[in-house]
Design brief:
The complex is a heterodimer. By secondary structure, chain A is of the alpha+beta class. Chain A has 2 domains: 5-74, no CATH class; 86-175, Glutaredoxin. Chain A has 7 helices and 4 strands. Chain A has helices at residues 15-27, 35-46, 51-61, 65-74, 94-98, 101-112, 154-165, and strands at 86-91, 125-130, 142-144, 147-149. In chain A, a hairpin with a 2-residue loop joins strand 3 (142-144) and strand 4. In chain A, helix 1 (15-27) packs antiparallel against helix 2 (35-46). Chain A is elongated and about 50 Å long. By secondary structure, chain B is an alpha/beta fold. In chain B, 42% of the residues lie in helices and 13% in strands. Chain B is built from 17 helices and 11 strands. Chain B has helices at residues 21-26, 31-39, 42-52, 64-69, 93-100, 102-116, 130-145, 176-183, 212-230, 263-270, 295-298, 305-310, 329-343, 349-366, 372-383, 393-407, 409-414; strands spanning 78-84, 118-125, 161-166, 207-211, 240-246, 253-258, 261-262, 280-284, 292-294, 302-303, 319-324. In chain B, strands 6-5-11-8-9 form a 5-stranded mixed β-sheet. In chain B, strands 3-2-1-4 form a 4-stranded parallel β-sheet, sandwiched between helices. Chain B has a two-stranded antiparallel sheet with strand order 7-10. Chain B is globular and about 75 Å long. Chains A and B meet through helix 2, helix 4 and helix 5 of A and helix 7, strand 3, strand 5, strand 11 and helix 13 of B.
Amino acid sequence: MNNPVDEKAGLRLSPAGAARVEALVAQYPTKASALMPCIWVIMDEVGYVSEAGVDFLTEKLELTRARVHEVLSFYTMFRTEPQAEYTLQVCHNISCHIMGARPIIAHLEKRLGIRLGETTPDGKFALEGVECLGACGLGPCLQLGKHLYEHLTPQKTDDLLDSLRKGVVPRADTDREFPSGGETS
Amino acid sequence: MSRSEYKMLSARFDKQDGHLLSVYEADGGYKALRMALTSLKPEEIRDVVKESGLRGRGGAGFPTGVKWGFVPEGSEDVYFFVNADESEPGTFKDRYLLDYDPHQTIEGTIISCFAVQAKLAFIYIRGEFGWLVDRVQAAVDEAYAAGYLGKNILGSGYDLEVIVHKGAGAYICGEETGLINSVEGIKGQPKIKPPFPAVSGFLNKPTIVNNVESVASVPYIINNGAESYKKFGTEKSCGTKLWSVSGPVKNPGVYEIPLGMPFNEFFHDYLGGMAEGEELKAVIVGGSSVPVLPASEIMNCNLDYESLMNAGTMLGSGGMIVIPESSDMVELIQVLMHFYFDESCGQCTPCREGTGWLHKIVKKLRRGEGTAADIDLLEHVCNGMAGLTICPLSDAAVMPMRSFIDKFRPEFEALIQETAPAEPVSRWPRGEQE
């Protein structure tokens, strides 16, 4: 997910990513209103928005650096530092809590040898507690990238970790075939 | 009445490939749009939705047709936002609507946009629903390809563009002015009302923000008429409501039932009662921001706006959180106060400071360091927060806080005595704090 940015060379988007940015600027009614989706393009390609990413956004959308930074820092899903290969985000809000999110977090902490909020020394896994993921009747749940893993048990989290250690992202509960392309963001 | 008779919104939830345009069309999908664009005037659509009694399903319960009527007549550049930020803890119904039947919401969006003469609509989906953004985009692409979106829709001369916009993790963007700011490319902090968005919203133009469930109800109303919609529900709470049920019941999930159904009936007949070995302690009926009701009180309630208001709570988003006897209520309120503290946008002092103080004081109580004065202090802080801020997030923290103390005071008091309570058992070790 992460392609560390060479700050001097500036942000390099893929041709598809660059085309997506142009399409967004054309589609949104003002340049500023295309800021969030353009940040998502960078997030999806690079994994975080570095200062080079901020430069790119300020020039492309004619915004001040302060404006870009204030949006980047307001939203929890936008990141400005390189991220772990797999960031496991476990919901710890009320419904998941009632259904046993804490024991799942404790189990993950033990298996990964890190505390909530930390990253493994090899940079492979990060463990985060997050607020409601909208899977309340399907908890406990965790988010990995675009997908949710639901009805978590210690066994299911073990299977997930084992698979990720082999570099395979297992099929998520929200992962289904899409009928007609339409990949976005 | 059989259950299938009142499935206006969830009829295709179990259907194989119900998310595909072909399946939706085979079920009569986009018929309402055709009717609306070819034989109805915008004001006629607004009137029928007003007559249907449809109320905003996001939480506030404001009549949808009346909201549409606030757009000044003859306005140009009207914008329409479908609020799929669905961030209220306990709520996951809009996710089902968009996942299993995205075209229903898209058809509702087009009709609603025509009713207020909007030319551009955004479907704002919370960032955590990454897979859902792809699914809705795929459905929107299908709708464009079929001529239901774009220029001169179905030959009517009406043009509409729809943009699927992905949020990035901010509870406050579920508030309509926060949501509008977010799409303008600034922090999702709410704005003072008035002016209401219907008069001055996105880019200072008239803007309507409607919840997914409200928008998804529109095709049914156009197809079947206001009277048919009003056949369900009560006099003031018309139609059906989707309830997202979480907690240790036998069958958690999303249910569509007519408004006004007794909780008792819903709980036993639909949810199957509590899961094995669990007893019902309390229910937060409308998402985490509404007051909690103990089992004895909720059992006598009907599930509609007025009955729940009379019982001292609110229907809210219909995010029903079922709390078992084994839960420690002070522990649960700590979880919730952490949430509101985390999500306060920081704009208004009472909320920014108050949510932090509520969280801190509850933590202190749970560490066993609290005094009786701390419970009074919680109430005092609540008094300094309620109704004093730009948006309702502050009140959303106060309502659970006050009601947890009010209904479960002995559990708070037990923490300031020498000995900890024998029951309930904590699922969260006391030493561990957040």
